[in-house]
Every structure is written in C-alpha cells, then in structure tokens.
Amino acid sequence: xxxxxxxxxxxxxxxxxxxxxxxxxxxxxxxxxxxxxxxxxxxxxxxxxxxxxxxxxxxxxxxxxxxxxxxxxxxxxxxxxxxxxxxxxxxxxxxxxxxxxxxxxxxxxxxxxxxxxxxxxxxxxxxxxxxxxxxxxxxxxxxxxxxxxxxxxxxxxxxxxxxxxxxxxxxxxxxxxxxxxxxxxxxxxxxxxxxxxxxxxxxxxxxxxxxxxxxxxxxxxxxxxxxxxxxxxxxxxxxxxxxxxxxxxxxxxxxxxxxxxxxxxxxxxxxxxxxxxxxxxxxxxxxxxxxxxxxxxxxxxxxxxxxxxxxxxxxxxxxxxxxxxxxxxxxxxxxxxxxxxxxxxxxxxxxxxxxxxxxxxxxxxxxxxxxxxxxxxxxxxxxxxxxxxxxxxxxxxxxxxxxxxxxxxxxxxxxxxxxxxxxxxxxxxxxxxxxxxxxxxxxxxxxxxxxxxxxxxxxxxxxxxxxxxxxxxxxxxxxxxxxxxxxxxxxxxxxxxxxxxxxxxxxxxxxxxxxxxxxxxxxxxxxxxxxxxxxxxx
Length: 538
Ligand SMILES: [Ca+2]
Fold this sequence. Notes:
29% of the residues lie in helices and 16% in strands. The protein has helices at 30-37, 51-60, 64-67, 92-98, 165-183, 206-210, 219-233, 259-289, 317-323, 357-364, 377-380, 406-416, 496-513, 518-528, and strands at 6-12, 40-46, 102-108, 130-134, 147-149, 152-153, 189-194, 296-302, 338-339, 352-353, 381-387, 397-399, 403-404, 423-424, 427-428, 451-455, 458-463, 466-470, 476-480. The strands form four sheets. Strands 1, 2, 3, 4, 5, 6, 7, 8, 11, 12 and 13 form an eleven-stranded mixed β-sheet that branches. A four-stranded antiparallel β-sheet has the order 16-17-18-19, with helices on one face. Strands 9-10 form a two-stranded parallel sheet. The radius of gyration is 22 Å and the shape is globular. Calcium ion (CA) binds at residues 13-14, 51, 199, 303-304.
C-alpha cells in the first residue's frame, strides 16, 4: 500500500493577494516561488476575511459561525458568537490523529476565548500531539504574549538572545519534522504552521529591511500597475479585468507626505514576509533531509486580505497591553514602546508598534478593492500554493477553479482516506461544508458548489460566475466574475430576479449556519464592552 502523504499546512496572517513573488509582488519569496513552480497555484481561492473566523473554518471544514467563532475570540453572545471553538466541530488534527497521523502545530491559534489558562478549546485538547505558539491573535514579534508550549506558558523563552517569533515558529516546525523522522518513521504526520507575519506591528530585522531599500520608491500607483501587468503576464489574472482605482481616501503617491517613513513601512512589511519565506525554506530543507519532500503535501495560504488599520485606532495603549494583550508596554530591556503611526518613528525595532496603513494595503491587494473585514475580493482573495511531487503531476500550472477554506479539510480527508466523523465524544458533529479540491489537481473543474461568507454584516454568495456581495449596511451588489473579477460594474439593477434568488439562497444559508443580524451582534458586543475598533468597520 502506498504510504499516506504527510501534510504541512502553512497559514500566514493579513497578507494581500499579490505580495508574493509568484503572485506578481515585489517581495523576494524564493521558497514559495519554487513550491509554486513545482506545484499548483490557485487564482480564485478565498478565506473568510478575518483572523479567527478563517482559522476556525480552515481547521474544521465548517463555516466559522458553526464553530462558535462568529467574529473574534471575545464572548459576543449566544451560539455561534461565543468566541471559543465549540464541540459541534472537530479539527483536522483531531480527525487525522484518529486516522493514524502524528499531529504538530507551531504558531498562532486564536480560536479560544481563554488566553491564560488551558481549556478544551486549546490546541493540545483539539488533536495536536505537540503545540508551540501563541493563543492570542497578535503581538510583539520580539516578546509575544501567551507564548505556550503544550499547555504551559513559556513567555520567558522570548528572553533568549536573538528570539524572533517568526523564526521561533519556523525552527519549531523544523524540529518537529526531525524528531518525527527519528522516532516515528513509519507514521505519517500533519503539521500546522501558523505565522503571525505580516500582521502588525511592523517588526523586522535590519538586514531583511535593507534588502528592500529602494524597491518601493516608485510608489503605490506605479507599483499597482506593475503588479497587475505581472499577474496578467503569468496567467493568474484575466487581461479583461481592470485595475480598481486607488483607494479614494488615499493621495496619489506624488502628493504623499512623509515619503521616507511611508517607504520604511512597506520595506518592513516586505521584510516580515521575506523572513517567513526564509523559515519555510528551512522547513522544506528539513523535509528533503528526511527524504520526505516527495510524499508531503505542502499547502500555503493567507488568513485574510491585506489590513488597512492604523494604529492605534479607537483603542488606548492600556487596552492594547492589558485588556487585549496584543502588545508590551516596554521592551525586554525596559525601554518604553512608542505606539502609533508617527512618521517621526521608523518601524522595525522592538520599541515600535506601527502598521503600514491603507495605501500600502491597497497595493498589497492589487488589483482588488477593500481589505481584511470585507467580503469584496480584496478582503477574501488569497494565494493558494499546493506542492506534492508524488500526488500532483503538473508543475507550475495555475488553476482557476474557485475554492474556499472548508475545502481544505475535505481535500485532506479525500487524499488520506480518513473519514469525517458524524459524532465525537458522544456529541453530533456538523456535516462537512467543503468540497475536495483533489479532482482539480489534474485539471480545472467545470463547476463547484455555491460558496457563502459573512463577517460583521459584510456578506457574499457565489454561484458559478455570479457573486452577490454586500458591504454592510449598503445594498447587495452583483458581479459577473467572468468579465469583472475586480468588482467594478455592479449589475444588480439589470438582474433583479437573480439578486432576489441569490439573496434568498444566502438567507437560507445564514439561518442554517447560525449567522446573526449585524444589529443584534453589535448590541451584544456593546453589552460586553468590546472595544470599538474590533467590531466596527469605521
Ligand atoms: Ca489575519
């Protein structure tokens, strides 16, 4: 019998559709480019627009509301909004472990409401044989909150000289592979590697930042045009899809103030992605050294589109540090951290806490519009790279078959032959929502099942080429993705019957999956005293 493949699922955090080299970007990502050249790239793969819901959906093969993660990991009310992975779902790790796999995780969890004490929503209780990483969703790359090994807090490990979270995630992933090869050579493994890069804060090493000196000097307008051209040239995007206009809130590059600081922001962002790619390079080398590269399926994707948030936005530093636990007030050597997008402070070092802002996020999401939080293409479009020499014959091909996060569980069960459970520990489990992408390993599929999204009232349904999408609280918009993937020509007024039919399909899905009306969720969150910036779009 052929050995079942190992699986390495790599997720990163808040990265735009076109940042990677192999998706038209300026950032040097030789490892991901090599995986793409020897595997497949998908041009229309979608996440769920936000950290926690995307992770919940990816891990379980369900929609986020079905798992208890309707918004983030704050308790926002009943059923689907408890902010804590519930017991009507199972993770990929639980299912594959039951099927004979060893299971490892390094990186960001962010689907548990209790950040300080282990609960049954933490990784070790959700199918992982080993866990190293953070329970919280963001933080200092030099000194992350909630750093955990197994169920134990190990924040002190960040005091080791040279600690940097992106490297720590990569190095742990390498050690799992080496230890597995030595101790369990006959068993297949599943490894989930969840980077926090390039989520803010903009933290990176000087030598990585220096590699991008001058690379963005042409400014966001020219670079957006260049990216579109490369995406079309490489066959990822259709030439008839037009570039969206620059975000209307942002100036032309020629009029932008503080250019030196702006460039530094984008250079640090690039360095964050670069450092991740270096780490993935070490993971791939460890697989090669263990002789396991050919029979390992490596999957890479991002959890949501690029992020347009400024820091701090609607929250105080005390809230960031004490309540949300996503920042440190001081560096490890006792220096006060300078918070905020102040052009007098250059981002990168441990004593800074900044984000790259709307205009660069607009570049990151080229050619699409809108960002993380929204269901327009800029919010939910992600690169998807699949590399599996023993299982995927074509090298460097592009697939235009649409897909989304629940498909990952379905695909992994399909290729491993492990069954999806109807019940777990006596509790009934919601039926799998995804569709296997394995048939698309050979060629694009003719059609796929409808896809649905909802996040904080922003919503969409896609059926065949048609996408009905809503930016809360505006009306539905309708796009024909065959000719207008960049969502420039709203056809809702020309096709009222199609809008009614698709909206009815959406409402039926929302009821079935426990999606609450936005007004109800906002009222619930106000009652919880949840900070404005974390549930309002503007
Ligand atoms: Ca994210």
